[in-house]
Amino acid sequence: MNLKKDSFTLSEPVSFHVASHGWLREIPSPPKVLNYLGSVQSLSRPCFAIVGTRRPSGYGVRTAIAFSKQLASMGFTIVSGLARGIDSWAHRGALMARGKTVAVLGHGLKRIYPPENFSLSQDILNSGGCLLSEYPLETPPLPHHFPQRNRIISGLCVGTLIIEAAEKSGSLITARYALEQNRSVFVVPSRIEDKSFTGGNLLLQEGAKLVLKLEDILEEIGGSYRECIEKDRKDDSDLLELKTLFETQNHQLCLTQILEASSAERTKLLAALDVAIKQEKVVEVAPQHYIWIT
To answer: Based on the domain organization, do 23 and 111 belong to the same domain?
Structure first.
């Protein structure tokens, strides 16, 4: 991957058929194909969207970071739109927690908008997340593209959290899409005297879930996602052990070295090796000889 100042030069296949992603193929008018840059493995975990105003208050910034960090630490992939304001802070919160985050763009992958978020997009890729777009690679950031891409943000996710939304805003469009897609919508309440952010409070009047703490979200989305996340956590722990073993062998390892481990460790390490190969962290360079490449 070669990086220019404000665009990406792509040198790898960068598309997948949405029919292969169960969540997206369920939504009305799904995109047929999504272009991507980075690791789509980040979409294999339960995803959660955090969106909001482009001009947040200090309270909004702190809230976006806090919820993003907490959810990412639990194993959720945080999805947002790489826009200024709450979107950017949601991505950054996930990165602070060393979690995964995905940005859905309203333009082609060879354009980054807003341009000041180029370094943030690079951080997302370097952390194992990805950038997604339904548009051709050179498509500019046209205004009507952003409301359209919001259906993908909500469609990828088990729930969407709205932070400081105006009465007429892209965040409310995302919330409407989420409700249409039978996804959960959550809102952090704003001060009633603040007329800039009445949209979120209106959603609460219409029945969105009021959120004061992380448990309010977890109670709503149910236990099945907890089980999935716990499995991901175990996989991550086993991968870390495998990576440590690779590091002791100068990042090269043969199957015999794994089989020399104790029986309990051997089972864990073999399972982790299979996961690492699927995630393209490990490459088999010769029969039963492997290199850790990330």
So the answer is: yes
Distance of alpha carbon 219 from the chain centroid: 21
CA-based nearest residue to 202, from 171, 178, 180: 171
Query: Which of 193, 221, 249 finishes a domain?
Result: 221
**Angle, helix 214-221 to helix 58-74, in steps of 10 degrees:** 50
Domain span including residue 240 = 225-292
If we measure between CA atoms, which residue out of 108, 114, 106 comes closest to residue 153? 106
Summarize the chain as % helix, strand, coil (round to 5): 50, 20, 35
Distance CA 4, CA 246 (A): 32
Rounded Cα distance, 178 and 192, in Å: 24
pLDDT of residue 5: 41
Amino acid at 66: A
- Count how many domains the chain has: 2
Please tell me whether residues 126 and 256 are part of one structural domain.
no
Looking at the chain, how many residues does it have? 294
- Other CB atoms within a 10 A radius of the CB of residue 84 amount to 16
Same domain? For 56 and 199 the reply is: yes
Both 169 and 282 in one domain: the answer is no
| 114: three-class secondary structure by DSSP | coil
Same domain, 109 and 238: no
For residue range 246-289, what is the model confidence (pLDDT) as tens digits? Answer: 888 888 888 888 778 656 677 888 888 888 887 778 888 888 88
pLDDT tens digits for range 187-231: 999 888 888 899 999 999 998 999 999 989 988 886 556 655 665
Same domain, 170 and 257: no
The pLDDT of residue 9 is 46
